[in-house]
Specification:
With about 150 residues, this protein is of the alpha+beta class. The protein is built from four helices and eight strands, in the order βαβββαββααββ. Strands 1, 2, 3, 4, 5, 6, 7 and 8 form an eight-stranded antiparallel β-sheet that branches. This is Pyridoxamine 5'-phosphate oxidase N-terminal domain-containing protein.
Protein backbone atom coordinates (compact mmCIF):
# COMPACT_ATOMS: atom_id res chain seq x y z
CA UNK A 1 0.00 0.00 0.00
CA UNK A 2 1.39 3.43 -0.90
CA UNK A 3 2.14 6.08 1.72
CA UNK A 4 -0.82 8.14 0.56
CA UNK A 5 -3.30 5.25 0.73
CA UNK A 6 -4.95 4.91 4.10
CA UNK A 7 -6.83 1.80 5.15
CA UNK A 8 -9.51 2.98 7.56
CA UNK A 9 -10.07 -0.51 8.93
CA UNK A 10 -7.70 -2.35 11.21
CA UNK A 11 -5.27 -4.67 9.47
CA UNK A 12 -7.35 -6.95 7.29
CA UNK A 13 -6.23 -10.18 8.93
CA UNK A 14 -3.40 -10.92 6.50
CA UNK A 15 -5.45 -10.26 3.37
CA UNK A 16 -3.78 -8.57 0.43
CA UNK A 17 -4.13 -4.76 0.30
CA UNK A 18 -7.09 -3.47 -1.65
CA UNK A 19 -6.36 -2.16 -5.15
CA UNK A 20 -8.12 1.18 -4.64
CA UNK A 21 -7.28 2.54 -8.06
CA UNK A 22 -8.30 -0.62 -9.90
CA UNK A 23 -11.63 -0.84 -8.05
CA UNK A 24 -12.39 2.83 -8.59
CA UNK A 25 -11.60 2.61 -12.33
CA UNK A 26 -13.92 -0.38 -12.71
CA UNK A 27 -16.75 1.34 -10.82
CA UNK A 28 -16.41 4.48 -12.93
CA UNK A 29 -16.49 2.52 -16.18
CA UNK A 30 -19.69 0.74 -15.18
CA UNK A 31 -21.54 3.74 -13.71
CA UNK A 32 -24.46 5.11 -15.73
CA UNK A 33 -25.47 7.79 -13.21
CA UNK A 34 -23.38 9.68 -10.67
CA UNK A 35 -24.26 11.99 -7.85
CA UNK A 36 -22.58 15.33 -8.46
CA UNK A 37 -22.26 17.58 -5.43
CA UNK A 38 -21.45 21.29 -5.33
CA UNK A 39 -21.65 23.82 -2.49
CA UNK A 40 -23.80 26.94 -2.76
CA UNK A 41 -23.00 30.44 -1.44
CA UNK A 42 -24.51 29.56 1.96
CA UNK A 43 -22.31 26.47 2.25
CA UNK A 44 -25.23 24.12 1.64
CA UNK A 45 -24.69 21.06 -0.59
CA UNK A 46 -26.45 20.82 -3.93
CA UNK A 47 -26.57 17.19 -5.09
CA UNK A 48 -27.85 16.18 -8.51
CA UNK A 49 -27.80 12.99 -10.54
CA UNK A 50 -25.82 13.42 -13.77
CA UNK A 51 -25.04 10.94 -16.51
CA UNK A 52 -21.34 10.96 -17.35
CA UNK A 53 -19.99 10.66 -20.86
CA UNK A 54 -18.19 7.39 -21.57
CA UNK A 55 -15.62 9.25 -23.63
CA UNK A 56 -12.34 10.04 -21.85
CA UNK A 57 -13.80 8.71 -18.57
CA UNK A 58 -11.05 7.75 -16.16
CA UNK A 59 -10.17 8.11 -12.54
CA UNK A 60 -8.35 11.33 -13.42
CA UNK A 61 -11.19 12.97 -15.34
CA UNK A 62 -14.92 12.57 -15.98
CA UNK A 63 -16.99 14.60 -18.44
CA UNK A 64 -20.64 15.52 -17.82
CA UNK A 65 -23.35 17.15 -19.93
CA UNK A 66 -25.83 19.62 -18.45
CA UNK A 67 -27.43 23.03 -19.00
CA UNK A 68 -25.55 26.26 -18.31
CA UNK A 69 -28.52 27.67 -16.37
CA UNK A 70 -28.47 25.12 -13.54
CA UNK A 71 -27.65 25.58 -9.88
CA UNK A 72 -24.78 23.13 -10.36
CA UNK A 73 -23.08 25.33 -12.97
CA UNK A 74 -23.70 28.51 -10.96
CA UNK A 75 -22.12 26.87 -7.90
CA UNK A 76 -19.08 25.75 -9.92
CA UNK A 77 -18.55 29.32 -11.07
CA UNK A 78 -18.44 30.38 -7.39
CA UNK A 79 -16.34 27.43 -6.17
CA UNK A 80 -14.89 24.73 -8.38
CA UNK A 81 -14.59 22.23 -5.50
CA UNK A 82 -16.98 19.34 -6.10
CA UNK A 83 -17.48 15.68 -5.26
CA UNK A 84 -18.95 12.84 -7.27
CA UNK A 85 -20.23 9.52 -6.01
CA UNK A 86 -21.42 6.31 -7.63
CA UNK A 87 -22.58 2.98 -6.24
CA UNK A 88 -22.50 -0.48 -7.74
CA UNK A 89 -25.25 -2.57 -6.18
CA UNK A 90 -24.11 -5.80 -7.85
CA UNK A 91 -20.70 -5.65 -6.15
CA UNK A 92 -21.85 -3.73 -3.04
CA UNK A 93 -19.18 -1.12 -3.52
CA UNK A 94 -18.96 2.61 -4.12
CA UNK A 95 -16.49 5.23 -5.21
CA UNK A 96 -16.39 8.85 -4.08
CA UNK A 97 -14.18 11.37 -5.81
CA UNK A 98 -13.22 14.79 -4.51
CA UNK A 99 -11.81 17.34 -6.90
CA UNK A 100 -12.50 20.30 -9.12
CA UNK A 101 -14.93 20.93 -11.94
CA UNK A 102 -15.12 23.54 -14.63
CA UNK A 103 -16.82 24.28 -17.88
CA UNK A 104 -15.22 22.92 -21.00
CA UNK A 105 -14.62 25.94 -23.26
CA UNK A 106 -16.22 26.00 -26.70
CA UNK A 107 -12.80 25.79 -28.31
CA UNK A 108 -12.06 22.57 -26.38
CA UNK A 109 -15.32 20.82 -27.23
CA UNK A 110 -14.69 18.11 -29.72
CA UNK A 111 -17.20 16.63 -32.12
CA UNK A 112 -16.63 13.33 -30.31
CA UNK A 113 -18.15 14.82 -27.12
CA UNK A 114 -21.45 15.49 -28.89
CA UNK A 115 -21.31 12.14 -30.68
CA UNK A 116 -20.80 10.36 -27.33
CA UNK A 117 -24.05 11.66 -25.83
CA UNK A 118 -26.53 8.93 -24.96
CA UNK A 119 -30.06 8.86 -26.34
CA UNK A 120 -31.25 10.12 -22.97
CA UNK A 121 -28.76 13.01 -22.89
CA UNK A 122 -29.76 14.06 -26.40
CA UNK A 123 -33.45 13.98 -25.42
CA UNK A 124 -32.83 16.61 -22.72
CA UNK A 125 -32.73 19.32 -25.42
CA UNK A 126 -30.95 21.86 -23.24
CA UNK A 127 -31.28 25.51 -24.29
CA UNK A 128 -27.70 26.25 -23.27
CA UNK A 129 -25.85 22.92 -23.24
CA UNK A 130 -22.43 22.73 -21.62
CA UNK A 131 -19.87 20.07 -20.82
CA UNK A 132 -18.31 19.90 -17.37
CA UNK A 133 -14.87 18.46 -16.74
CA UNK A 134 -14.27 16.94 -13.32
CA UNK A 135 -10.64 16.44 -12.25
CA UNK A 136 -9.98 14.09 -9.33
CA UNK A 137 -7.78 14.88 -6.34
CA UNK A 138 -8.87 12.21 -3.83
CA UNK A 139 -10.44 8.79 -4.33
CA UNK A 140 -12.47 6.93 -1.71
CA UNK A 141 -13.46 3.34 -2.39
CA UNK A 142 -15.82 1.33 -0.21
CA UNK A 143 -15.76 -2.38 -0.98
CA UNK A 144 -17.78 -4.51 1.43
CA UNK A 145 -16.40 -3.50 4.85
CA UNK A 146 -13.13 -2.05 3.55
CA UNK A 147 -12.77 1.71 3.01
CA UNK A 148 -9.64 3.15 1.41
CA UNK A 149 -8.54 6.61 0.35
CA UNK A 150 -5.90 7.55 -2.16
CA UNK A 151 -4.62 10.95 -3.24
CA UNK A 152 -4.12 11.38 -7.00
CA UNK A 153 -3.03 15.01 -7.32
CA UNK A 154 -1.25 17.49 -5.08
Amino acid sequence: MSKEEIDLNQESGGQAPVDTIGQAEQLLKEATVMQFSTIDKRGFPNIVALTPLKLERSLKQVLFYTDRDTTTVHNIVESSKVSIYCFNERHHCSVGLQGYAGLVSRSEIQKSYVNDLTKYQKSLNYKHPVFLRFTTIFVKVRYQDNVTFQKLLN
